[in-house]
Specification:
single chain, mainly beta, five-stranded mixed beta sheet, 50% strand, binds beta-D-fructofuranose, hydrolase, Glycoside hydrolase family 32 protein, Glyco_hydro_32, Glyco_hydro_beta-prop_sf, signal
Length: 482
């Protein structure tokens, strides 16, 4: 059974077979969440890119669909986005229907080999059957490269105050904003980022969108970067600011990261979801994505997350929480109060049998050093925890199982805590080969994958001295693959 092999995520999207990287073209339309993705159907390593396709009505259960976009004479189909062209500004709609428009990068491998500087250009495709099938536009590309080698990953949104489309494009060490009345003709508006944010690698997969801050509009700009992430390799930074239809400005001082773990990259948000903003990332890292020890397929997506704002001191931060739809697959939830962890505690003593995948929520009134350890009887373990003196969360996969496939994989990764409250809450979404940590209601997030030689089957809690868990909730999560 394809969906139940070793390491196959049970509550995360992964393709039936072969290679996947970035999520692309995420759009919600007529009750369906579309997820396209960078896909190479001929191998389990990266190659000539296609857009694979999957759909869901609840963000949790996915059905893989036929490939949406194949490479063509302009090149491979690199990352991009999709929008609903409600008033048919493009004129590509038929019989009064709104077309869906995909905007992506055409990557010409021949130009790349020849070391030309204009081999990435922006193209579009349209669908008049609600996303099932796609036709490339006849006059691609719609935005030509002015001579910037890295010129890709268009994310497009409708800017209502200016009645125009805005494209946010990754252009090497910055993003460039373009505008268009019709998705076909694009004009440069401005650039952002040359001297701000993290620059340990090239900027990729940006996303600009508005979030509500108690009735005020705040603009968020996500910029993925590879390498240069806080725990090595690829990661997602973000900026908080304002956008006036022409320019993005921020008062950010230090770099903020949507997810501090190593395994959340190229994430962007769904379009057409109203005021709700839903984010999804690729659950891997370019450091080792091509060599992780899976056989039939390689890589998966994170759990979809809802993004909101939260004020912390003078800062406005983005918080991420697993979408509430995750509750659909929750089974036999158990809540226990006032648990005393005296050095060690085997979770099953409080909750009955522990199964993977599962969700574990902890809240405490006074926080001490602690860890949650996933393990098997071969001595392999993954440690997730908090260190009070560093005010840091950590995930340690140095003894997590298979790890020799790449030298940086076996690391102890850390993430800052942003608030000084005595109390703390923590939510862990644990699949058979990944964990997503949401701490302090999603202020600190860490995503990590792991590959034990034999599945983990045990969860233990550890405290330096004594830890009191005010409330512990545990639930099994039902596989999304029938
Ligand atoms: C990010 C990325 C994008 C590019 C795509 C190619 O992971 O490098 O910049 O469009 O992957 O597959």
């Amino acid at each position: 059974d394809v969906y139940h092999e070793m390491y196959r995520p049970q509550i995360h999207f992964s393709p039936k077979e072969k290679w996947v990287n970035d999520p692309n073209g995420m759009v919600y339309y007529k009750g369906v969440y579309h997820l396209f993705f960078q896909y190479y159907p001929d191998s389990t390593v990266w190659g000539p890119m296609h857009w694979g396709h999957a759909t869901s009505t609840d963000l949790i259960h996915w059905k893989q669909q036929p490939i949406a976009l194949y490479p063509d004479s302009l090149g491979y189909i690199f990352s991009g986005s999709a929008v609903v062209d409600k008033s048919n500004t493009s004129g590509l709609g038929q019989n009064g229907h709104a077309p869906l428009i995909a905007i992506f990068t055409s990557h010409d491998p021949i130009g790349e080999k020849a070391h030309r500087n204009n081999y990435q250009n922006q193209s579009i495709a349209y669908s008049n059957d609600d996303g099932k099938t796609w036709k490339k536009y006849n006059h691609n590309p719609v935005l030509k490269n002015p001579g910037i080698t890295d010129f890709r990953d268009p994310k497009v949104m409708w800017y209502e105050p200016g009645k125009k489309w805005i494209m946010t494009l990754a252009t090497k060490d910055r993003v460039t904003f373009y505008s268009s009345p019709d998705l076909l003709n694009w004009k440069k508006e401005s650039e952002f980022g040359e001297h701000i944010g993290a620059h340990g690698g090239v900027w990729e997969c940006p996303d600009l969108f508005a979030l509500d801050d108690n009735g005020k509009t705040v603009w968020i700009l996500i910029v993925n970067i590879n390498p240069g992430a806080p725990n090595l390799g690829s990661g997602a930074q973000y900026f908080v600011g304002s956008f006036d239809g022409n320019k993005f400005t921020t008062s950010n001082n230090n770099t903020k990261w949507l997810d501090y773990g190593p395994d959340d990259y190229a994430g962007i948000t769904w379009s057409n979801t109203g005021s709700r903003k839903i984010f999804l990332g690729w659950m891997s890292n370019w450091l080792y994505a091509n060599v992780v020890p899976t056989v039939r397929w390689r890589n998966a997506m994170t759990i979809p997350r809802e993004l909101k704002l939260r004020h912390v001191g003078k800062d406005i931060l983005v918080v991420s929480e697993p979408v509430k739809e995750l509750n659909i697959i929750q089974q036999h939830p158990i809540t226990v109060s006032n648990i005393v962890v005296d050095k060690n505690l085997d979770l099953h003593q409080k909750t009955g049998a522990v199964k993977f995948p599962c969700r574990l929520n902890l809240s405490m009134d006074t926080v001490e050093d602690f860890s949650v350890v996933l393990s098997n009887d071969m001595g392999e373990q993954l440690m997730i925890g908090y260190n009070k003196s560093d005010t840091q969360f950590f995930i340690d996969r140095t003894k997590s199982g298979k790890r020799s496939f790449q030298k940086d994989f076996a690391a102890r990764d850390v993430a800052p805590r942003f608030i000084k409250n005595n109390g703390m809450n923590l939510s862990l979404i644990i699949d058979v080969s990944s964990v997503e940590l949401f701490a302090d209601d999603g202020l600190t997030v860490m995503t990590e994958i792991f590959f034990p030689s034999k599945s983990y089957d045990k969860i233990t809690l550890h405290a330096k001295e004594k830890l009191i868990i005010k409330k512990l909730s545990y639930a099994n999560l039902q596989s999304i693959w029938k």
